[in-house]
Amino acid sequence: MERQSAEAHRDYRQANEKFDYFLTTVTIAMCGYLVQIYDASGLRNFDVVSILGASSICLFLASILCGFHRMEKLIQAKRKNYDYLRASERIGDISRSAASGETVLFNGEPADKNKILSEIEKCDERVASLTKEMNDKGGSAEWLYKVRNNTLLLGMALQFLTQILSGIL
Fold it and tell me: Exposure of 52 by Cβ count < 10 A (0-12 exposed, 13-18 middle, 19+ buried)?
C-alpha cells in the first residue's frame, strides 16, 4: 500500500509541475502577444481602453513572476526534502547498527556510545530544522499558486473587457 501512495504522490507532483510550466509558458506567450499589439499612445490622453490594456499586461507580468517564484520555491523544497530523507536515513542506519551490536564507524573509526548519541542528536536537530524549512517553502509556494492564478484570471478579465470596450468606443 505504501508503494501505491508513493507512486500516486510522484504522479501528482509531476502533473503539478507540468501544469505550472504550461500555465507560465502560456501566460508568457499571451503577454508577449499583447505587448506586440498594444498601442500606448492612448495613455497620454487617459484613454480607458489603453489603461485597461496596460493593466492587463501588468497583471499577466505579475502572474508570470509568481509562476517562476513558485517553481523556484518548489525546487528548493525538493532539495530540503532530499536533505531531510538523508538525515532520517542516517539516524536509522546508526540506530540499527548500534542496536544490533555492530561497531559503528564514523570517518572509518569506531565510535563510542557518546559519539553515537551525539551524531543521532545532530541528525535529529537537522531533521527538525529541515521540517520547518520545508513547511515554510510549501506555504509560500501555495500562496504564490493562489496569487498567480488570481492575477492571471484578473488579467484575462481585464483583457476581455478591453477587447469589448475597444469595439464599442
Answer: buried
